[in-house]
Amino acid sequence: MRFDGLVTPCYIINDEEYAQNITRFRAEFESRWNGRVLFGYSVKTNNFPYMLKAALAHGFHAEVVSPDEYAFALRCGCREDNIIYNGPQKQDTVVSACAAGSIVNLDNLEEVERVCAAFRDSEHKSAVGLRVNYDIERDCPGETTCTDIPGRFGICLENGDFENALAMLRESGIELAGLHLHQSSKTRSLAIYRSIAGTAVQIGREFGLDALRYVDIGGGFFGGSFFPGKPTYAEYAETVCTTLREFYSPEKTALILEPGAAILATSMDYLTSVLNIREVRGHRIVTVDGSVVHINPFMNPHPTPFTMINPGVESTVEQIIGGSTCMELDRFYPRDMKNLAQHDSKFLFHCCGAYMSTHNSSFINAAPNIYLKRGEGYTLLRQKSIDSLFPKESEI
Fold first, then answer.
1. Three-state DSSP class for 11?
2. Facing residues of 380 across strands?
3. Side-chain half-sphere of 378: how many Cα atoms within 13 Å?
């Protein structure tokens, strides 16, 4: 591998890997749902403009969860009718997004009330989706993020709120276009998606919704080449589509998916160089010019796949790989490190495309450079700068 001219620390976008992930993910679901699939790029997973623009070029929609992300998608060239609008903080923008033709999934009864009030007497009769909150822990014990604590998002199915939302929409003449059932999980297992799709089937049968425009499964899938033993794109697609076909048909109902990590995780690497090496009470401490906050913003002590560039000799000596900040917790955890680091070594950490560059702040170090790799060449897309620390002169 050659990294001539790259200033570390930096992110590297692998354009070929990203395109392959998008193409493979699309193909597996489209082949099982007669091509009637909409894909929403999860802006929150990586809000670097290039990544969204590339996804839009592949025919994706933008999936956003805030007014700021909605504005971001527009600035990246996305049309309003190509935006999927989720999240709990839409407030007044929920009405304007509906009027503009966005796919809007209402998160709570207050949003339902806003939309009903806005369009009840209007000639423009909007169509919306409802996000469903249901007890997935019951189906997949121990696999969910919240465990026995209820999830925060969506309209509760079990307490009658979902049925009330349906009644409010019908009374106002607003079409229920779809269901949104995204759930967060620790495992991302096939059982999670079987439960999600199965609940969509259950709701469809109970409320006679076989002619919905869409069912939105959400995201949260594993993806790429660094997750051996985890579900594949094909296994996810087979599980979701087979389950949905128990009630829905592609001819009537489109499938919406909102992949984030599934297409992004393996599309970016993080490169950092050795600054200095010291010995402290029998431990070899290697300090690099990057920081673990760039690839592990919550600083969890979990191993990360990596490649060492210019490795030293094989050794079982314990090495502590520390970042450049003055925090003791700024430590990397390379997986299966078998060689000594040298002063001219570099660490290339893999699977850094999801929820990493988006969390960068200017704490101690400004956000790193971002390069695009195409073939053997690199193009600088974002340059490290401290400009974000300074207000405009007119604001001083």
1. strand
2. 371
3. 16
Question: What is the reported pLDDT for 390?
Answer: 83
Q: What is the pLDDT of residue 363?
A: 85
Cβ contact 1:36 at 8 Å: no
User: What is the three-class DSSP state of 93?
Assistant: helix
Query: What's 28's DSSP letter?
Result: H
Provide the residue type at 83 as one letter.
Answer: I
Which helix (H) or strand (E) is 256 found in, with range?
A: strand 254-257
- End-to-end, the C-alpha distance of the chain in Å comes to 46
Give per-residue pLDDT as tens, 72-91. Answer: 999 999 999 999 999 999 99
Q: Kindly calculate the radius of gyration of the chain based on its CA atoms and give it in whole angstroms.
A: 23
Axis crossing angle, helix 15-30 with helix 49-57, rounded to the nearest 10: 40
- Spell out the residues 6+ positions from residue 389 whose beta carbon is closer than 8 angstroms to its own: 362, 366
Spatial distance between the Cα atoms of 170 and 120, rounded to a whole number of angstroms: 10
Q: What is the pLDDT of residues 158-193, one digit of tens each?
A: 999 999 999 999 999 999 999 999 999 999 999 999
Token reading at 272: 């950092």
Q: How far apart are CA 144 and CA 261, in angstroms?
A: 17
pLDDT of residue 396: 54
Closest among 48, 79, 17, 47 to 226, alpha carbons compared: 17
User: What's 295's DSSP letter?
Assistant: T
Query: And the tokens for 238?
Result: 């087979």
Q: Tell me the average confidence (pLDDT) per consecutive run of 10 residues in the chain, 396 residues long.
A: 89 97 97 98 97 98 98 98 97 96 98 95 84 96 88 96 97 96 94 98 97 97 77 96 98 98 96 97 95 88 90 93 94 89 96 88 90 94 87 63
What is the enclosing helix (H) or strand (E) of 331? strand 331-332
Give the pLDDT confidence score for residue 393 in this predicted structure.
65
Q: Which of 347, 340, 338 is nearest to 291 (CA)?
A: 347
Selection from 157, 99, 149 nearest residue 130 by Cα = 157
User: What's the rounded Cα separation, in Å, for the pair 175 and 35?
Assistant: 24
Q: How many of the other CB atoms lie within 10 Å of CB of 295?
A: 25
> What CA–CA distance (Å, rounded) separates 14 from 282?
39
Give the DSSP H or E segment for 272: strand 268-280
Nearest to 155 by CA among 140, 166, 145, 139: 166
Task: Answer whether 266's CB lies under 8 Å from 353's CB.
Answer: yes
